[in-house]
Amino acid sequence: MLNVGKIEEGFVLDHIKAGKSMDIYEHLGLDKMDCTVAIIKNARSKVMGKKDILKVECDINTLDLDVLAFIDHNITINVIKNGEIVEKRVLSLPKEVKNVIRCHNPRCITSIEQGLPHIFILADEENEVYRCKYCEEKYAERQ
Amino acid sequence: MRHLMSPLDFTVEELDKLFDLANDIEKNPEKYAHACEGKILATCFYEPSTRTRLSFESAMTRLGGRVIGFSDANSSSAAKGESVSDTIRVISCYADICAMRHPKEGAPMVAASRSLIPVINAGDGGHQHPTQTLTDLLTIRSLHGKLGGYTIGLCGDLKFGRTVHSLINALVRYDDIKFVFISPTELRVPDYVTDMLKEKGIEYEEVIKLEDVIGDLDMLYMTRVQKERFFNEEDYIRLKDFYVLTQEKLSMAKDNMLVLHPLPRVNEISVEVDEDPRAAYFKQAQYGVYVRMALILTLLGLA
Question: I need a labelling partner for B280 at 20 to 30 A (CA). Which of B85, B133, B186, B273 fits?
Fold first, then answer.
C-alpha cells in the first residue's frame, strides 16, 4: 500500500468519490497555488470501497468551500495544525454557486452577454436542484 | 428601486393594491390623464411583439407620458453587438422607466441589475411574461369579483406555454381554486407544476377532451399552439386543431363561465364565440392596458 506522509499545517479532504480528486483540484484553483498537494486516487475505503483523498499544505481559509460542497457535499475536511487534526468540517450545499458551472440553456442570456457571471441558486435542497439565476433552467449534470 | 421580473415579485396584498388602482383607472380615466406628464417610457423590444408593445405605449400615453424605443433587435444597438448591460445604462439616461422584451431568458433581470430606472419584463423567451399574468389576474378579479373560489380549465399547449405556467404559479396563492388541465398527451402540463400542486394540496385534474369537463368550469383559459415551440411541422399540424372552442362546445358550459385567451388567437376559438357574452378575451386586452398603467404609476412611485 502506498504511504503518503503526514502534513504539518493544512487540511485533508477525505471521502472524495473515487476519480473526482482532479476535478476538485481544478475547481479549488490548487493548480495556481504554490503549496504542496498530494493527490491520492483510489485509496481503499471500508465505507466507499475506494475513494480519493487530497492533502493540501495551505491555510484552509484561502479556499472557496462552497465550490467543494457543490461538487460533493459528502466530502469531509480535516483541518491540521502541528500535525494533528484540530477540526473536522462537514459541508452543506451552498445557497449559490458562481462561475463553477455554466448554464447550458441556449435561450439563456448567459449564452450571449459578455462578462456575465454564471450564477446558480439552490432551488430544492432535498433533491439537490440548482437553477440558473437568470433563466431558472435546472442544472442537470451534477458532477 | 423596484422592477417587475416575475408575477411573484409582488405579494398578494401588493397585487390587491395594484388591481384596485387599475380598477380606479378604468372608472376614472380622466383622473390619471396627466399623471405621468414629463415622464418617458422606453420600450426596448429585441424581438417583435406588436400587441405587448402597443399595450405599453397606450398605457403610458393614456397617463400623459411619452414613449421612445425600438421594436426589433435589428434597429437597435444590439445589432452592433452592444450588451444588454450597456444598453440599459444608456437608456437610463434617456427615460424614466423601461419595458424590455428579449428573446433570451433572463435578459430583463440582467438589465434590472445594471439599470438606474425601473425595468419591466415584457417577456423573456419562454421564461416569464409577468404583465400578461397581471392582466389575467385583473381580468378574473374584475369579471368574477374575486381571485379565489372557482374551477379554472386551462386548455391547449400546457407544456410550452409560459403564460399558463405563470398563471398557475400566481393563482396557487389564492384559496379554493381547482385546476383542470385540458391538453393532448404531447402537450401536458410539466411534472414540476403538478408536483407543486400536489405538495400544496391543491386539487387538479388532467383530461384529454374539452367536452368532458367544460360543464364544470367557472373559467376557461384557452391558449394557442405556438408553431415556434415545435421542432417539426408535422407535429404542429397534427396538434394545432385538437382544441378548438366552438359555440357547440360552449353550449355545454355554465351560463356565467368566462372564456379567457392571452391573444393572438389563430383558430382555437371560433369567431362565432366572440359574440357570446361569456367571451372575455377582448375585455382582457383592455384590462392589459389598465394594469400596465397601474404598474407604471406604481413603479414610478406615483401611485
Answer: B186
- pLDDT tens-place string over residues A49-82: 999 999 999 988 888 777 888 888 889 999 999 9
Q: Which residues of B touch A115 (CB under 8 A)?
A: 83, 85
Determine the pLDDT at residue A74: 85
Domains and CATH numbers, chain B: 7-128+288-299 (3.40.50.1370), 131-285 (3.40.50.1370)
Give the H/E segment covering residue B140. helix B130-144
Question: Which residues of chain A does B88 touch, with a Cβ-Cβ cutoff of 8 Å?
Answer: none
Q: Is B141 on the interface with A (CB under 8 A)?
A: no
**Local confidence band at A141 (pLDDT 50, 70, 90 cut-offs):** low
With the CA atoms of B63, B68, B72 and B75 taken in that order, what torsion angle do they form, in degrees rounded to the nearest 10? 170
For residues A1-14, b (16+ Cβ closer than 10 Å) or e, as one string? Answer: eeeeeebeebbbbb
Interface A-B, measured as beta-carbon pairs within 8 A, has a size of: 50
Q: Which of B84, B85, B106 sits opposite A135 (nearest CB)?
A: B106
Could you please report the per-residue DSSP string of B245-284?
B-HHHHTTS-TT-EEE--S--SSSB-GGGGGSTTB-HHHH
List, by residue number, the catalytic residues of B: 51-52, 80, 101, 129
Q: Side chain identity at B158, as an amino acid letter? A: L
pLDDT digits (tens, 9 = 90+) for B207-246: 988 999 999 999 999 998 777 666 678 877 777 666 889 9
Flag if B110 and A115 touch (Cβ within 8 Å).
Answer: no
- The reply to whether A137 touches chain B by the CB within 8 Å rule is yes
Instruction: Name residue, grid cell 423596484.
Output: B2
pLDDT at B61 over 80: yes
Q: Which residue has the cell 402540463?
A: B189
Domains recognised in chain A with CATH numbers: 10-90 (3.30.70.140), 96-132 (no CATH)
Task: Give chain A positions within 8 Å (CB) of B107.
Answer: 109, 113, 134
Contact B105 A135 (CB under 8 A): yes
ipTM for the assembly: 0.85
